[in-house]
Amino acid sequence: MFLVEKEGFGGLTMSKIAKQAKLATGTLYIYFESKELLINALYLELQENAASRFLANFDKTAPFKNKIKGIWINYFNHRIEFHKESVFLEQYYRSPYISEEQRRIAHDLKKPIINLLKEGQKEGEVKSNIDAALLFYSMLGFIREIAAEHFLGTYTISDQTIEEAFELSWNGIKK
Fold first, then answer.
1. pLDDT tens for the 175 residues of the chain, in order
2. Which string of DSSP letters, residue by residue, matches 21-76?
3. Cα torsion angle, 64, 66, 71, 72, sign
4. 73 near 170, Cβ under 8 Å?
5. Cβ within 8 Å of residue 100, ≥6 positions away
6. d(CA 114, CA 51)
7. Would you list the domain boundaries of the chain?
8. Which of 61, 76, 82, 165 has a 20 to 30 Å separation from 144 between CA atoms?
């Protein structure tokens, strides 16, 4: 993953991966027939780990806004704590290297949150005249930008700014 940041997907080779991992290149080929299969496996593992973090400590009995806030904060914390992994996931998702199966899996991992937003639409908690996926993407885009600026050192976050940022997101989706 860190080699992808340095080399890009095109410049990445199995020999470079093996060298970074302190393995013989042949050993790497025992487990993965190609660079694409290795990257797909890495993507899937990171994507599944990320999705489980988003839903960590999810309380089905909490008020709707608290459910969304918990997921929002989990995603925000993930973007800060696992910034390089997040960037890799984004780059790969938008690259020509991703397989249709990987893209489908990534889409399926988003479903619990999108379905939660759909429930909120039915309950009258969030805007029902806008596609739930679009509501989801609006929150994610905002989080990504704040986290990126924080990571670059151009914006400092605090508990207060996290609270304010969530309220901005909430105000954008609430009914």
1. 677 777 777 788 888 888 888 889 998 899 999 888 888 888 888 888 888 888 888 899 999 999 999 999 999 999 999 988 988 888 888 888 888 888 888 888 889 999 999 999 999 999 999 999 999 999 999 999 999 999 999 999 999 999 999 999 999 999 9
2. HT--HHHHHHH-SSHHHHHHHHHHHHHHHHHHHHTTT--TTS-HHHHHHHHHHHHH
3. positive
4. no
5. none
6. 12
7. 35-173
8. 61
Query: What is the number of other CB atoms lying within 10 angstroms of the CB of residue 112?
Result: 13
Length of the chain measured in residues: 175
Provide the β-strand partners of residue 126.
Answer: 174
Torsion (CA) 169, 170, 172, 175 in degrees, nearest 10: 170
| CATH no. of 35-173 | 1.10.357.10
75/29 Cα distance (integer angstroms): 34
